[in-house]
């Protein structure tokens, strides 16, 4: 493709509307344009990237035995009423009426439609398992669409739905999809993590999120340095500490006037913050409870709410604490509580020896308390945020790190959640009717394009992973309009590379070299070749990989050998 | 692909909802399923056909220099208000409100959105011409969606829009698109006609429709036997007759009591219906006018309305005729009209000699009237429907035939209709701002699938043109579950054909041969190979082309040679 014939409206200035780097660079590079809030047009360059992602997704889905279908964007309300989501789904579900005043919605997801198809077409366990997918336009009416493709209202998703006669079959397909997703993100050249999103107590159903790692990610992803373990920080666990074997010291009450923080307390008492036990009064659905954490740990409200089986959880204020227990803030402790409250301790608190707590008297703290000897062991639970350096809960050797992640995929064992409500039943081997089990598997195809940029850019523009690049190679022909020999050499090279199956973008525009280089860097092709009268005279090409810091003058044979090795 | 692993829910019965043969066969063959009125899900087999059509469309668009983009389905009302179509477009435009109560619509077409893109991104004539296209989901809220894919509410369209600095450039791109459309329909193996849809007096802008010829088509297409001329019957012309050289006979008035029809009149007077002149009283926007046609011709109301520059045109009733002229129905004539009315005659009437008309007296007709001698020549115009056998208006030798057609494509020179309203302006060579010219070019991608079936079926099912077939070859393995050798031979053949790039559908199901044959005929693959223990023993394959009437027992070498010749 020649730049002179390609619709590539690049921008010099960063558009004010764009906060995220991917949004800025995709606008500046002429990949996308905004039509209205959360609605984007894919320009030719951007569509090429999108199609490459779609291509990899399709190949891996087919390889895993999924079959492609295409369902309508517009869905009848009746199905959503059957599943109960017409009422449950918030205003993100864009509802509309047709000319006959019948209710419809724009599909944000297709569980209802696929379940309707399945209940009409599947009669027997012999037709199972079945895994159907589509690559399709979806709509979610975000309240504040932001960040370009990252949180658009209209977007492109690959969604797959599988149907099974039993849990073993569901598990097998779930694993196939999990593996397919790993293959997809690996082939796309993205650094990613499959994150355990096991909802544990709530459903017991398996679920994993796939996150592209990038500093701008909305989610904190905890991951092991040695094994595959990764989890959302909200859910991440770590290996509990071993019991300490320190000799027990005699407990003593100390005057600690004016102390407000764990750090003050540790300093005044000459201990480490890890030996301080924080006592946090919380209201779990209005029920007061005392939570205990190590001084150097942070409360994880989501874990705590789940442990206490509470819909809402909040910290008590100083006033509420004084009112309920008569103790000033900062001097609470589990020993001799003025009122009988449930107490739950983080598991790391229960292995402490010689710890310090508030004494439930203003200006007084305990030092060298020990469980059993000085106070009873409370209920233990995992209440804390894991921290960098914690031991991995899965493997023996790894320690945990924390990265930011952008969710680009989600696999989920739905069980009978939709098939029960919509009546997706088949005859089983015994000839009896049985509700089928379902799995669902989503990939944010258009979001991947943005996530890839968040992970792959520098101060000059995008650095596309090879598989996603809109073209494989860019050729900059210097002053091509004035030098027919330069243009001819560039065209010959383009033809040679295209014959090898490479996609080439030839900048033959009548622009200054600086403008040409800036464009090429901005749009982020993996390889750049420059030809000018000077290099032509030497019979050499100036080559630079997009992430290289220097140019290399090389022969045509070397050019072909470098680009030969390029994976397609 | 193996049938045992492919989601192919075929139906034995014809669904009651389906009137058209394409709708019936696409449902029965497991290509599509209905979700709701006018909304269809593409099943795996149907999607394969759709993708093949899309593939050919994309290749020819790219070859013609168009660049692919992807615009949103959901469009802001503001743009439609700017173009004036928010009010003009009827209820087929599905309007909706987002959560912030802002108005949007589901795009039935994208002139507004592309014009908005162009006015933001194009600054100079140097960026023109530009031709952008997309393959995308569209929505038209049909009042009575019918005929399956033929008139669905949600459908897939290829729409292209071109931008130009002048009419020459528009004309050149229009011709490229016209040629690309011919290539597309030719490659798809469809019998089609490019139909002149020149709106003549109304706009003077060039426009062609592309129709797939099929008996079930909604449009009557007039076409020449010798040249490329084709037109919608509403607009079709024919070569006027030459003046007759018959000797003039003396006019006489004859008593013709009780005569009601042209046929009666001709019989009683001993002349041919071609010598009868019908006099039709019409109201053109409430203005009475007398139209004259030959007895064997039919009035074309659309042509007549255009000639009379009328928005509405209707025939007068017997009562109105008697009231206005005092003449009973059937005895009207242009000679000595009782009231002064404008008279317009079809051009074929004006070359008649010795014709017969009503005498404006009940029970009386004129015989052997002649223009000038007996009555003045009225205004001449083209008022009639062309008929089979008429002379072609374009070439010297051809005669006209009439076929039914399904519109699958439309190319149109829009001129400045949208660019003026939306302000798509560029600087021209003289540095002055100028409104650009636009063309638009649509193809009903999903409709093509239905139209192809309407043109290619028999009593057993679909006969796909090779380029559109979901698979190239079907292999029926007889009793494969019971004969491992048959299955192994079928699989080996599949592997050999796939290695040649052919797409193979292997029916390895545990079904009776009759069911296997019926399925294969229904889904309409171009080539069928059957293998059984019997043919295997002879080392032969039973081959049948989908349109063949007989099987052929052939060797593997012959199989490979037949399928070798298959265009991909």
TrEMBL record, chains A, B:
Q: Which CDD domains match?
A: ProRS-INS, ProRS_anticodon_short, ProRS_core_prok
Query: Which UniProt keywords are listed?
Result: Aminoacyl-tRNA synthetase, ATP-binding, Cytoplasm, Ligase, Nucleotide-binding, Protein biosynthesis
- Gene Ontology BP, a term: prolyl-tRNA aminoacylation
The residue ranges of the Aminoacyl-transfer RNA synthetases class-II family profile domain are 33-465
Q: Which residues form a coiled coil?
A: none
Q: What EC number(s) is this enzyme filed under?
A: 6.1.1.15
Report which reactions are catalysed by this protein. Answer: tRNA(Pro) + L-proline + ATP = L-prolyl-tRNA(Pro) + AMP + diphosphate
Q: Where in the cell is it found?
A: Cytoplasm
Give the residue range of the signal peptide: none
Gene Ontology CC terms, in alphabetical order: cytosol
EC top class, in one word?
A: ligase
Which domain of life, per UniProt?
Answer: Bacteria
Give a Pfam family name. tRNA_edit
What GO molecular function annotations does the UniProt record carry, in alphabetical order? aminoacyl-tRNA deacylase activity; ATP binding; proline-tRNA ligase activity
Task: Please provide the record's free-text comment about the domains of this protein.
Answer: Consists of three domains: the N-terminal catalytic domain, the editing domain and the C-terminal anticodon-binding domain.
Q: How does it assemble?
A: Homodimer.
In UniProt terms, what function does this protein have? Catalyzes the attachment of proline to tRNA(Pro) in a two-step reaction: proline is first activated by ATP to form Pro-AMP and then transferred to the acceptor end of tRNA(Pro). As ProRS can inadvertently accommodate and process non-cognate amino acids such as alanine and cysteine, to avoid such errors it has two additional distinct editing activities against alanine. One activity is designated as 'pretransfer' editing and involves the tRNA(Pro)-independent hydrolysis of activated Ala-AMP.
- What does the sequence similarity comment in the record state about its family? Belongs to the class-II aminoacyl-tRNA synthetase family. ProS type 1 subfamily.
Protein name listed in UniProt = Proline--tRNA ligase
